[in-house]
Amino acid sequence: MNPPAQFRSLRPESLFLRLARNGSNSSPVTPVLIRYSRYATQSSLGGSKNVQSTRKSITVASDDGTVKWGQLSRAEKVARATQQSVNFLVIVAGAVMTCGVFTFLYLDVFAPDSKTNQFNRAVNRVKESEECLALLGDSKQIRAYGETSWNKWTRNRPIATTIETDRKGNEHMRMNFHVSGPLNDGVVLVHLVKLAGQHDFEYHLLALDVKGHRRVYLENADAAKKAAAKAGSTIFGIQWR
Fold first, then answer.
1. Largest CB tally within 10 Å, which of 15, 122, 176, 215?
2. Is domain 115-234 given the CATH code 3.10.450.320 in the classification?
3. Is residue 4 scored above 80 in pLDDT?
4. Which residues contact 197 (CB under 8 A, 6 or more apart)?
5. Which value, to the nearest 10 degrees, does the dihedral of the CA atoms of residues 184, 187, 193, 199 take?
6. Is-contact 219 203, C-beta < 8 A?
7. CA 225 to CA 232: how far, in whole Å?
8. Per-domain residue ranges for the chain?
């Protein structure tokens, strides 16, 4: 038994034969054209499904963002969300590390009260002192550096610096470094104090020690206080104790 007409696939040549036989009657032509177009549409839909089924599945490592969100399965959406979350965390971590590096550089190098600036100021004070130049030599040939070492490549070490806060809230910065001139070598002692509520450090002690010579004081707050107290206790030329 032949299959019904609505399920029979028509070839192009059979279509033209029917058109030739029924040239005068146009009613049979219309159903044939409809069935043929329906057959073509179903075959094209089947081809698109096959193309979509050949797409590789999206994973966390292979997702490149080319496939739209609506075309992803539930597992693929989870993979893309995981990948984007990891990327976001990496960006945040990089931003935090960058801010940390810039903060460290500012506090340690560029800030007005940084250790580097205080070291440079102390070196300039030594080079401007006539007493220090008499012991060290020409200021243009004076070099300042950290702790000495037997290895000449590691001679310029970081400056020995300590920062602490006392019970009154005063901040103390102590620093020692070496100086070398054409005449002698020496050690510079620095003690800075930032009183509670103030923004700048003040010199409490700045001195140069050269072996075989007396200590040269550029700043000595303790001696200044003793001198002021001694002058205040003198009345009419008589020193009261």
1. 122
2. yes
3. no
4. 169
5. 70
6. yes
7. 10
8. 69-110, 115-234
